[in-house]
Design brief:
It is a single chain. By secondary structure, the chain is α/β, with parallel strands linked by helices. Helix 2 crosses helix 3. The chain is built from 10 helices and 14 strands. A 6-stranded mixed β-sheet has the order 6-7-8-3-9-10, sandwiched between helices. It folds into 2 domains: about 220 residues, P-loop containing nucleotide triphosphate hydrolases (Rossmann fold, 3-Layer(aba) Sandwich); about 80 residues, Alpha-Beta Plaits, CATH 3.30.70. Bound molecules: adenosine-5'-triphosphate. Adenosine-5'-triphosphate binds next to strand 2 and helix 1.
Length: about 300
């Protein structure tokens, strides 16, 4: 659905994205990275608002910069980070107007505005001016605008910004519903790991304009399911410690505790390994809840 090869995007002399190579399937894709990492630049590039200075890319089968790339706008919905809602107009008017801007006829836009507002749970307040709306309601108007023309892909830039925990849960439930009920793919940019973890089936981690990690959440979880903390009865001798790598990748060693990504998914192998070397493994603690550590590791300077 999205593919980039060695993509480079610049703002004059500033290189905002470099060497970005990615291949992503339809689904819910989480785009994670700290401020300034290049998330918005990537979104603007695939919306056709920025031209790559180098490399190639393809969005929904259409090459970036192709003559028919402008048509892509009708297949993509965009929910920007900040709202530009008109205070003295109703949600219904604004969503219908957006539908027309996205290429629908006036009649289609009106019909679809009702459907989109119903979908985001704003059908009862749709004729009220948005000036009286809560932050959560305003976010949902923006989502309805992004969905009004039934796009194949919807891009959400920090959709939970400024929301309280209840509003966040509601927005993330809607993201899941977009994929499940509308069969629309979602690209969700966020700096909040918990949000991405909750909804995404694929993950891209950006930092300083480069991809630090990318892949399916299931793959990431499988990898995390092999992470354990090992505690031995006595400190390992240097010769035993040197052979620890036979069990998998040693991630960290501190005060006789070892964090490992085991090569064998069956942890019993670790006990056998210890026994064969005269060491006593007393505790093997799973660490698969630590997705945040993967993120920190990915963002750590090399
Ligand atoms: N119009 C611009 N002119 C010059 N440099 C820019 C411009 N827009 C962004 N940049 C730079 O490009 C880099 C990537 O910025 P970008 O806005 O894509 O990051 P981001 O991950 O979306 O951050 P945020 O979460 O703060 O929006 C940053 O170093 C930023 O300073």
């Amino acid at each position: 659905m999205l593919a980039f090869e060695d993509l480079e995007v610049r703002y004059g002399p500033v290189v905002a994205l470099r060497g970005v190579t990615l291949e992503l399937e339809p689904g819910i894709i989480g785009l994670l990275g700290p401020n300034g990492s290049g998330k918005s630049t990537l979104l603007k590039t695939l919306l056709g608002l920025l031209r790559p200075a180098g490399g190639r890319g393809e969005v929904l089968g259409v090459p970036l910069g192709a003559p028919d790339a402008a048509k892509l706008r009708s297949r993509i919905g965009y929910m920007p980070e900040y709202d530009a809602l008109i205070e003295d107009a109703s949600a219904y008017e604004q969503v219908a107007f957006w539908g027309e801007l996205s290429g629908l006829s006036a009649r289609q836009a009106r019909d679809r505005a009702h459907e989109a507002l119903y979908f985001v749970g704003l059908d009862e307040s749709r004729y009220r001016n948005v000036s009286g709306y809560s932050t959560g309601m305003r976010q949902r108007v923006k989502l309805a605008q992004a969905l009004v023309h039934s796009p194949d892909l919807v891009i959400l830039d920090e959709p939970t910004n400024g929301l309280d925990p209840e509003g966040r849960t509601r927005m993330l439930d809607l993201v899941l519903k977009v994929r499940a009920e509308l069969d629309t793919s979602v690209l969700l940019a966020s700096h909040l790991l918990q949000d991405v973890e909750r909804v995404a089936d694929q993950l891209v981690i950006l930092d300083k304009g480069e991809v630090k990690a990318a892949g399916s959440m299931a793959g990431l979880r499988r990898m995390l399911a092999r992470r354990f903390e090992l505690r031995f009865l006595d400190p390992l001798r240097p010769d035993q410690e040197a052979e620890l790598g036979q069990l998998g990748t040693v991630l960290e060693a501190r005060n006789g505790l070892y964090d490992l990504e085991l090569a064998d998914p069956d942890p019993v192998a670790a006990f056998r390994w210890a026994q064969a070397r005269g060491a006593t493994l007393v505790q093997l603690t799973p660490r698969h809840d630590r997705l945040d550590e993967v993120l920190i590791r990915a963002l750590r300077p090399a």
